[in-house]
From TrEMBL:
Segments traversing the membrane: none
Domain annotation BFD-like [2Fe-2S]-binding: ranges: 2-54
Family from the record: Belongs to the Bfd family.
InterPro entries per UniProt: BFD-associated_ferredoxin, BFD-like_2Fe2S-bd_dom, BFD-like_2Fe2S-bd_dom_sf
GO molecular function annotation: 2 iron, 2 sulfur cluster binding; metal ion binding
Protein name per Swiss-Prot or TrEMBL: Bacterioferritin-associated ferredoxin
Organism whose genome encodes this protein: Rhodopseudomonas palustris (strain ATCC BAA-98 / CGA009)
Keyword Cytoplasm attached: no
One Pfam family per UniProt: Fer2_BFD
Length: 66
């Protein structure tokens, strides 16, 4: 799913930045920097935050279940 139409970023792109070799992105601004682009209109920020929160919660649940 495309979450940033200005930079054509998908939800998969956002999740990938949370596991990047240069260190995990911690906020939407870092997601854009990791992907080599910049924020433009800002409409994607809320969606990117939600994707990041879901990924973090899912990781925490997997660790707790191990």
């Amino acid at each position: 799913m495309i979450v940033c139409s200005c930079n054509v970023l998908s939800d998969h792109d956002v999740r990938a930045t949370m596991h990047s070799e240069g260190g995990p992105a911690r906020n939407p601004g870092e997601v854009h920097r990791c992907l080599g682009c910049s924020r433009k209109c800002g409409r994607c920020m809320h969606t990117i935050k939600n994707i990041m929160n879901e990924a973090l919660c899912g990781a925490a649940e997997r660790r707790a279940g191990s």
